Structure formats: structure tokens, C-alpha cells
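Entry type: protein chain
Record version: 2
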Amino acid sequence: MPLKVPTRHNEKLKQVVKRVNQDVELQQLWRCANINAVDRSSITDHGEVHVRIMANAALKMLRLLAEAGVQMSVEADYQLTKEDAEVVVVLAACLHDLGIAIHRDNHEQYSLTIAYPKLRELLADVYEEPERTIITAETLHAMIAHHWDHRCLTIEAGIVKVADALDITQGRSRIPFEAGDTGIHAVSAAAIDSVSLLKGKEVPIRVEIAMSNSAGIFQVDELLKRKLRNSSIAPYVEVVAKIEGETEKRLIEFYTM
């Protein structure tokens, strides 16, 4: 399934996305990562579907921030453009979990090892030096900083960190739940019906989360809030979670220890 993001008039992003979609090795690495994640570890999808959801979320947040006048770090520090920042966040979304193809534990570090040569390939002829090295370095930083306790030194890294945490809807998190896991992580994830990214009134970004059960608050409070608070974009984001409908959906029949 090809990566589809709204490239608009960003020709460099359009070229990069085209190369991603033509890269057989990269697509196989996504499949290998999912074998280790889903089949061997019984955790949620970390392959191409996750990449697509995350890339689109990151791109939308970046554009909402830019529309509100927030300057991207590649603009402030390297005199590049918002369009270059878009390339950074989309590539970071594409490559941030590749290390799971090696091992789930410490995968952020393994991802850097795989991603460096891949970035040089994907950016060849799209950027000349020194811009190619700048985009590579900024993408690698955004990748390693997607772990909740890694400090984000750029706006782009904060966008990537939060975008990763927004892939939490019921359809995306059902694997451990349907496998019989009735722990709070699985049950709370099953309670998230939808996540919407909207233009905020007081801050640039409003995240609206619709839940079928109040157990979903754990997913928001424990996972999303933790990443948002440790990101560089926390002042620009508000999160609103609400239960849809008049009654809560029953998620489990009983619980035993």
C-alpha cells in the first residue's frame, strides 16, 4: 500500500514520497518490523499502516503550527524552509521504527543505524550538499527523540513524537486485546474510537479524542500526555477527550488474576 500524503506544492516532498514508494528494501523492512512487533511480540502494528497514519498526522500538525506563525527549527537554525521541515517529519515517520526489524528492545538506536544510509539514498539528487546532510541529521534527531523520555531539540522532533502517540484508535490497537490481553493498556486502547486533528482556538492544534469507554483516559493520560509533555510543541497543543453516546461500551465480561 503506497504512502500517500498531501504534498501540495512541495516538489521536494513529492520526489521523496515517490522514492519511498519505489523502495523495495524499505517496504520489506517495514514488513520485517511488523513480524517482530505483531507476530512475535503481540504488540500493535509498527509497519506501513502506522507509517502512513503517523506521516499524515505529522504533516498536518506542522502545517497547523506554520499557519499559526510557529517557525520550524530548520528555518530558524539553517535558513531552510517550511517545505524542508515537511521532508524531515515525513522521512522521520517513515524510518523511525525500522530498528524493530532487528529487535523491539532499544529499537530507536537500531533505527538510526539502518536509516542513515537509507536517508542518503532517498535524498540523493533531491538535495545538494550541505543541505542533504542537514536534512539527514535533522531527520535522525527526530527519529531518536520519538521515545517519550528523549529530549526534543527541534520543533520537528516534537511533531514526530506526538504524531507517533496519536496512532491509538481502536482499530489500530486491537491486536493484543483480541489476543486475550485484558490489562489496562489493551482495554484502554480498545476504548479509543477516533482521533481528530483540528485547528485550535487558543493554541494552534486541538486534538479531539472520542472514546467508547472511560478506560480510554488511561491511554490518553499515560501515553499521549507523557509524550506531549516531553515534546517541544506542548505549548501549542490542547487535548480534549470525551465519551461518545449516553452509555459506555462494555469492553470485558470479567477479569481474573
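Comment: The chain has two domains: 11-165, 170-243.
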